[in-house]
Amino acid sequence: MQDINALLEALKFSPENIPLRIHVAGLYIQSENYEEAILHLKEALKQSPSNSEASILLGQCYYLTENYSASIILLENYIDGKYPKALQYYCLSLFKEGDMDLAEKHYKQLIHSYPDFSDDALDDAFRAKNSEDLDQDFVDDTPFVEHCDLSFKDVGGMDGVKKQIDLKILKPLQHPDLYKAYGKKSGGGILMYGPPGCGKTYIAKATAGEMNARFINVSLNEILSQWQGESERILNELFNSARRNTPCVLFIDEIDAIAAKRSDLRNSAGKTLVNQLLSELDGFEKNNEGVLVIGATNVPWHLDAAILRPGRFDRLIFIPPPDSESRESIFKIHLKDKPVGKINYPKLAKHSKNYSGADISACIDGCIEMKLEEAFEKNGTIDIETSDLASAMKKHKPVAVNEWLKTARNYAVYSNESGLYNEILEYINKK
Ligand code: ATP
Questions:
Q1: Atom of ligand 1 nearest to the CA of 204
Q2: Position with higher pLDDT, 187 vs 131
Q3: What is the rounded distance in angstroms from the CA atom of residue 148 to the CA atom of residue 57?
Q4: Ligand 1 within 6 A of CB of 358
Q5: pLDDT tens per residue, range 270-323
Q6: Starting at the edge strand that comes first in sequence, how are the strands of the sheet with 313-318 ordered?
Q7: Closest by alpha carbon to 301, among 224, 428, 193?
Q8: Phi, psi at residue 164, to the nearest 5°?
Q9: N or C: where does the chain have the smaller number of CB atoms within 10 Å of the terminal CB?
Q10: Which residues contact 55 (CB under 8 A, 6 or more apart)?
Q11: Is the CB of 298 under 6 A from ligand 1?
Q12: Is the pTM of this model over 0.85?
């Protein structure tokens, strides 16, 4: 063992050197002098209360000195899957306290996330079934994970976008070796941008469905408001959930708000969240096989350039407003299985020129409500006709697709140095 006296001497001169103090505590643990290790870890935590390494080692020491309840309380904060050692001693302490169900549940989580993990006591207790069974048994109870039953056939039109998703997302995942041979990557981060209500979330979900993957949908509000004060932890938990639930699409909506230009963020809380996001994305390439992160924004011009660097959101997909053909398909999809008469779809497409997919869906909802009232009055179903939809459209005020295009055009014309807005320019020119 390294000469601990020399290190203790060094600590006398720099008592605030926390990494050194933790190193000393580790050496004490190796030599089974847990009491001394605990003293140093407590001192480290006094100076740096949120130091995860010191906390986890202290939890380990509590377990090794048979103070199981203290170990459980301390390690509870580190069982999100990121720290296998914390999970290991947490399980061991639960096991000693006789809470077998919870111990087994977290053991399964450990095996699921770290298939090579082994611990004699835990393996003996819980590996009664083989590890494959345990893995199948594993149920991630995170509230965010959805199972997707949407697929591309549920997305009206958008053939160009589907083709891009196929080339940039699906094919690379299906043929990673081929893509690698040509120097192209699979997985990683994709950024979808475009006007509100035009299907970014919807097509991301359908992409997850096409991949037979799980889907985690996070919006700015969930992270910033609802979880105020602990946003970084939640963001990390979401990434870990995605890592535990592969294949998984992690969809981060309104990414501009968490990834706004760091200079725009007045408070340091916002900055730490941006940094957390960047570090999750950087870690992403290293240890996140099977996770696809899709960010979405209506205001790509507010994004921090750091977000778009290679290895982060380095592939962009423009989700444009639906063209006439797409609008026709969106009407058809949303009216499928509803009582309809002979609908003039080209006419509806013509009269919904500046509509987003969300506008079309809202009009159909409005129309159905009207029809329901009528059906109650007349005591039976009555078909939806083109005229019903036309009058619902008259009452509806479409979201600002045109306004968005005007703003986007200004950015595309006047600040397109990086070529970020090429697709928008192409779209506007075509129009
Ligand atoms: P925002 O930027 O406001 O978050 P968004 O671009 O993510 O909007 P979505 O939430 O995906 O838009 O779309 C809203 C709704 O519009 C969807 O739930 C769906 O009902 C409908 N919709 C949009 N595009 C399509 C489409 N191509 N096919 C079928 N439905 C669509």
A1: 11
A2: 187
A3: 40
A4: yes
A5: 567 777 887 887 765 456 677 889 999 998 888 877 778 877 887 889 999 999
A6: 145-147, 214-218, 248-252, 291-297, 188-193, 313-318
A7: 193
A8: -65, -40
A9: N
A10: 45, 74, 75, 77, 78
A11: yes
A12: no
